[in-house]
Write a sequence for this structure.
C-alpha cells in the first residue's frame, strides 16, 4: 500500500524541470507543479514557443522560468545543464515528458521508428544522465518521473515482446542491463530497416512506440536499482507513469482524457511523500505490474 499523506516536503526553492513543456501534458505538468508552489523550469526545443508558453504561466503569477532544450541535441542538453547549474545550483525534480508518436488511429507505420526510439528512449536517457549529477541531496530525495505508456509493459497482456527468453532476461535485475535494453532497441531498428520486424515478435499495436516506452520503463527499473544504493539523504527516486489516452496533438486530439487530468498522476508521483516508491510504472495513481 502507498502511504499518501499530504506532507508538503517541497518549497519555492524546489526546482522542477519539465521537458517538452510548451504544450500538451508537459505544459500541464508545468502549470500544476508551479501551482503547488515549486519553481518550474519550462523547457521547449523552440525558444520562442517556450517563452510564449511560460508567459501564460508567469502572467498567472506562477514561479516559472524558461529555457531552450532539445533532448536529442547534445549541445542543447549541455548548454541547458550549464545554465541550470549556474542559475539554480541544482535540480530536485526532473519530468521527462518530451516524446513523439507518429502512429494515429490503427496506423502502425515504421516510417519514423528511428526518430521515435531516439527521442523517447535515448532522449530520456540523455536527460537522466545529464541531470543526475545536478540532483541535490535532500531528506525527501530527488525525483525523476518518466512519462511513459502501458503499451511498454514487459508482460502486458496484449502488447508484449514474444521472445520468452528475452522477456525473462529483461525481467530480472541480475540480467537486466543498459546494454541489453540498447541491444533490444537496436535489433528492432535493424529489423525495421530490413523490413523483417513483422516476424520479430514485437508488440502488435503502435509497435515502434511500444518498444520505445518499454525501453524507458526498463531503463527506469535499472536506474532505480542503481540509485537505491546511494546514501540516505542523497537518494534519487525514478518512476514511470502512463497518462492514458490523452487529447493532445500527439493523438490528433482524439484521446478520452484531458491533458490536465493526464498530468495529475505524474504530479502526484513527483510529489509523493512516500520515499520507498521507485522503479515502478503507474497509471491513475495506481501501480501497474511491469
Ligand atoms: P505533444 O505532442 O502535445 O507534446 C510533445 C512534447 O514533446 C512537445 O512539447 C514537443 O515539442 C516535445 N518534444 C518532442 N521531441 C522533442 C525533443 N527532441 N526535445 C524536446 N522536446 C521534444 O504530446 P503529449 O503531451 O500527448 O505527450 C507528452 C508525453 O506523454 C510523451 O512522452 C508521450 O509519449 C506521452 N504519452 C502521451 C499519450 C497521449 O495519449 N497523448 C499516451 C501515453 C504517453 P514540439 O512542440 O517542439 O514538437
Amino acid at each position: 500500500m502507498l502511504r499518501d499523506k499530504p506532507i508538503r516536503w517541497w518549497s519555492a526553492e524546489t526546482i522542477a524541470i519539465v521537458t517538452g513543456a510548451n504544450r500538451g501534458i508537459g505544459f500541464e505538468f508545468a502549470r500544476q507543479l508551479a501551482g503547488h508552489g515549486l519553481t518550474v523550469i519550462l523547457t521547449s526545443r523552440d525558444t520562442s514557443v517556450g517563452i510564449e508558453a511560460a508567459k501564460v504561466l508567469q502572467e498567472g503569477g506562477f514561479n516559472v522560468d524558461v529555457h531552450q532544450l532539445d533532448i536529442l541535441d547534445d549541445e542543447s542538453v549541455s548548454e541547458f545543464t550549464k545554465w541550470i547549474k549556474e542559475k539554480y545550483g541544482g535540480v530536485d525534480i526532473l519530468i521527462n515528458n518530451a516524446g513523439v508518436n507518429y502512429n494515429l488511429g490503427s496506423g502502425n507505420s515504421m516510417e519514423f521508428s528511428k526518430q521515435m526510439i531516439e527521442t523517447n528512449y535515448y532522449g530520456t536517457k540523455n536527460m537522466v544522465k545529464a541531470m543526475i549529477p545536478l540532483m541535490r541531496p535532500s531528506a525527501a530525495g530527488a525525483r525523476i518521473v518518466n512519462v511513459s505508456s502501458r503499451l511498454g509493459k514487459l508482460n502486458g497482456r496484449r502488447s508484449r515482446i514474444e521472445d520468452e527468453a528475452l522477456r525473462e532476461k529483461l525481467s530480472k535485475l541480475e540480467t537486466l542491463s543498459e546494454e541489453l535494453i540498447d541491444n533490444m532497441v537496436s535489433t528492432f531498428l535493424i529489423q525495421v530497416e530490413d523490413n523483417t520486424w513483422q516476424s520479430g515478435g514485437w508488440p502488435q499495436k503502435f509497435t515502434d512506440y511500444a518498444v520505445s516506452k518499454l525501453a524507458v520503463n526498463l531503463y527506469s527499473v535499472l536506474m532505480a536499482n542503481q540509485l537505491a544504493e546511494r546514501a540516505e539523504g542523497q537518494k534519487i527516486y525514478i518512476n514511470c507513469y502512463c497518462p492514458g489516452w490523452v487529447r493532445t496533438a500527439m493523438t490528433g486530439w482524439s484521446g478520452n482524457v484531458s491533458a490536465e487530468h493526464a498530468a495529475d498522476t505524474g504530479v502526484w508521483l513527483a510529489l509523493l511523500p512516500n520515499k520507498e516508491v521507485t522503479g515502478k510504472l503507474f497509471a491513475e495513481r495506481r501501480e501497474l505490474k511491469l
Residues 15-288 form a domain with the Rossmann fold fold (CATH 3.40.50.720). DSSP finds eight helices and eight strands in the chain.
